[in-house]
Amino acid sequence: MKRKSVAGVLTVALIGTMLSGCGAKEDAAGESISGAPEVSVSGTELAEGAGVQADDGVVTLTVWAEEANFELLNQMIDSFKEEYAGQAEFDIQLVDKADADTKNDLLGDIHNGADVFPMPDDQLTSMVAAGALMPVPNADEIREANLDEAVAAATVLDTLYAYPMTADNGYFLYYDKNYLTEEDVMTMDGLLAVAEANGKKVTMDWSSGWYLYAFFGNTGLDFGVNEDGVTNYCDWNSTEGSIKGVDVAEAMLAIANHPGFLAGTDEVFLAGVQDGSVIAGVSGVWNAAEIKAAWGDNYGAVKLPTYTCAGQQIQMASFTGYKMLGVNAYSEHPEWALKLADWMTNEENQTLRLMERGSGPSNKNAAASEEVKNVPAIQAVIDQAQYGRLQRVGNSYWTPTQNFGNTMAAGNPTGTDLQELMDTLVSGITASVTQ
């Protein structure tokens, strides 16, 4: 998946190149947590910039980032140098790396990795287990400044291991106000009825377990990763309770067979928006610019709708996602690397990131700003977050959910018994990684 200072400047251009979000499909490593080298920097020292001796010579730091963010980050680096002028001479270099690749690239050669790097929250557990991250020394200050969910996403065993940066890597509903009212978008039934009446489509990607979770998350059926951080537990095939596994399958088939629905990837969704065949779809902030360009003033974004399941209206769930800055535990200048990560994620720079790149901030004050309220996509992902949960899954989750989603999207073409389909799904999700 994909995943941006002056009020009033926020335009389509500013939300146009949103960062890639990764609904990153990666399992948490099962290694025991190893200790990182300790750094004698107190929270007060980090916050106030006092008590840290300047190194002899130049402080050289490397920061990984996606190239689209270089201009923004250079502004932050310049202000950092101004803030600490006289304490050290800095040489801070940006290196182009995809956020989604941070874990693999760093753990592949940690001693030559960047000093500071961005990462999606689902990479945190593996990074901590490998002893790759420096714990945040001014943790209480950072916890107070950021949204609780973003702090939780950066925490392992009550230790904060990274600086929260964004809170926008989730999904929600885009819709065309030219066709759909605020009442229509509250339910999947309403969306599909309007789409059918106008010869249009509502889209959602069922080939990804990231999106497929939407149908199960608020049903009372349970799912999650075990304490080993590698395998999953799941009862989506349950035959008991007010909502059973087959009830969800039947609900999905009803949607799949509706004339107003089209299962498709983000690319299918955008193509439909641009050619006029799609009037609503489930996606994330990374598509906001293209959708705004296509729909103009008719562009709308809201939380996900409810859907009909076992005679009830069930609020669709979501995986929530956050990005953060980590500091390499083997940095040659850990004090300054920590201070740089802290600086690049403070309120001012999160606001700048919002204005320049359209990224939803994790900082409480920045998230409550008028600028956020003026970006429908960011407001929608924040509204949906109350119905979501952090993506914490073992690797065996992805292939079974993809297979199940594709079968449902095709209308169960082989006519397989639904309980059998649910049993197969759960068996795959809960399989050990060696099976």
Describe the structure.
With 435 residues, this protein is of the alpha/beta class. The protein has two domains: 12-168 and 322-378, 3-Layer(aba) Sandwich (D-Maltodextrin-Binding Protein, domain 2), CATH 3.40.190; 172-319 and 394-429, 3-Layer(aba) Sandwich (D-Maltodextrin-Binding Protein, domain 2), CATH 3.40.190. It has 18 helices and 18 strands. A hairpin with a 6-residue loop joins strand 9 (223-225) and strand 10. Residues 1-55 have low confidence and may be disordered.
Beta content comes to 15-25%
Termini gap: 27 Å
Computed CA radius of gyration, to the nearest angstrom = 22 Å
Largest sheet: 5 strands, mixed
In total, how many domains does the architecture comprise?
2
Task: Please identify the top-level CATH class of the largest domain.
Answer: Alpha Beta
**Unreliable stretches covering 5 or more consecutive residues:** 1-55
Q: Please count the beta strands (DSSP E, at least 2 residues each).
A: 18
CATH topology of the largest domain: D-Maltodextrin-Binding Protein, domain 2
Helix amount: 25-40%
Strand order across the largest sheet: 11-8-12-7-13
Q: What overall form do the CA principal axes indicate?
A: globular
CATH architectural type of the largest domain: 3-Layer(aba) Sandwich
